[in-house]
Amino acid sequence: MADPGSRPVTVSDVQQLVKRKDEIEAQIKAYYELLGQKGVGMTEPLVDAEDFPRGDIDIYEVRTARHNIICLQNDHKALMKQVEEALHQLHAREKEKRARDEAEALAEAMSQSQPQAFARVNAVTPGSPASISGLQVDDEIVEFGSVNINNFQNLQNIATVVQHSEG
């Protein structure tokens, strides 16, 4: 696997690490089986009661198997740390992506739910009905009677609504 800082961790990277972990575990198991066939484990003495090498086992083979098990267990521990870090990076990136997607979806939903303005107020005459109703300069008009963003063509549309609403 490449250095985690050089590029993002991928699922393929994690799968390769897990494959390597499985290989190491298989090797450890094979060495333990070898020790089991010899009738010794990792801690049994290799000398008899009189401190002579046991004659019923191949001392060199047992010591080599024990050494290889210890080395492989260290490699396994380091590899598991890499797997853990890779999974953390992978899930963190997915969490960030999900949060970003949710934020974009929320922003899109908010922009779609807010009505679009079709006009902006440039001036309000004091004492006019617009002034009395609280209309202010720079207010945006999103709907005026039946006129909205979908059917607005020009200010004549608003004048027509006002003429029909007099009184």
Automatic annotation (TrEMBL):
Keyword Chaperone appears in the UniProt entry: yes
Family: Belongs to the proteasome subunit p27 family.
Coiled-coil blocks: 69-113
Domain PDZ residues, every copy: 121-164
InterPro entries: Nas2_N, PDZ_6, PDZ_sf, PSMD9
Biological processes per GO annotation: proteasome regulatory particle assembly
Name of a matching Pfam family: PDZ_6
Top-level taxon in the UniProt lineage: Eukaryota
KW Coiled coil (keyword) present: yes
Primary gene name: Psmd9
Full protein name: 26S proteasome non-ATPase regulatory subunit 9
Nas2 N-terminal domain boundaries: 14-92
GO cellular component annotations of the record: cytoplasm; nucleus
High-level lineage: Eukaryota, Metazoa, Chordata, Craniata, Vertebrata
PANTHER family: 26S PROTEASOME NON-ATPASE REGULATORY SUBUNIT 9 (PTHR12651)
Listed SUPFAM superfamilies: PDZ domain-like
